[in-house]
UniProtKB/TrEMBL annotation:
This protein's UniProt keywords: DNA-binding
Name assigned to this protein: Helix-turn-helix domain-containing protein
Transmembrane segments annotated in the record for this chain: none
HTH cro/C1-type domain boundaries: 15-69
Length: 196
């Protein structure tokens, strides 16, 4: 993202583009996302204050990867994302910096710098979620399974399952990857597999 373009501006342009491509009115998107029409209007005008929860709701409702809403197109063979140039998207207990969406064919990998401050719950979303803890201790609950991770530890799971991140020793810094393929939908998800 360019230093002079905020996450609000990028979200506004992308949200309007995706919504109109889906032939959805603001009222229709409001019904699907359970976000008020006035709030959606503010987001599309760049005046809103988006949270992680809002962006995830829009992603689910529009059935697009989060990067479709937060990424700017990148050109050339080298992409550099400076920490100071990426605005933090805040949630109840997590701060995310969207670094890059990488599309290859029908596959998208979204790369985030994640800081878990307290507790963040997700009802589930399309794709596979991967996290590598860089600092702190992180408790991850996926469905009925719970695991605690430390620096260097990895977890991966079907993101359609409800999941929770909790900072045990925090704040916890991690790299978060979301992997999507065409046709990924929230719905009946398989049970999580936990390796020792």
């Amino acid at each position: 993202m360019e230093a002079d373009e905020s996450v609000r501006d990028v979200l506004a342009a992308n949200l309007r583009r995706v919504r109109t491509a889906r032939n959805l009115s603001l009222s229709g998107l409001s019904r699907l996302s359970k976000i008020g029409k006035a709030t959606l209007s503010q987001l599309e005008s760049g005046a809103g204050n988006p949270t992680i929860e809002t962006v995830f709701s829009l992603s689910r409702a529009l059935e697009v990867p989060i990067s479709s809403l937060l990424d700017q197109p990148h050109g050339g063979g080298l992409t550099v994302v400076r920490a100071a140039d990426v605005e933090v998207l805040r949630g109840d207990g997590v701060d995310l910096r969207a670094l890059r969406g990488i599309a290859t064919g029908d596959t998208v990998v979204e790369v985030y710098d994640q800081q878990v401050r307290s507790r963040q719950e997700s009802p589930g979303h399309a794709g596979t979620e991967h996290a590598v803890v860089q600092a702190g201790r992180l408790r991850v609950r996926v469905g009925d399974h719970e695991v605690e991770l430390g620096p260097g530890d990895y977890v991966g799971f079907d993101a359609r399952l409800s999941h929770t991140y909790v900072a045990v020793e925090g704040p916890v810094r991690s790299v978060l990857l979301l992997h999507h393929t065409a046709g990924d939908r929230v719905g009946d998800a398989p049970r999580p597999h936990v390796a020792g």
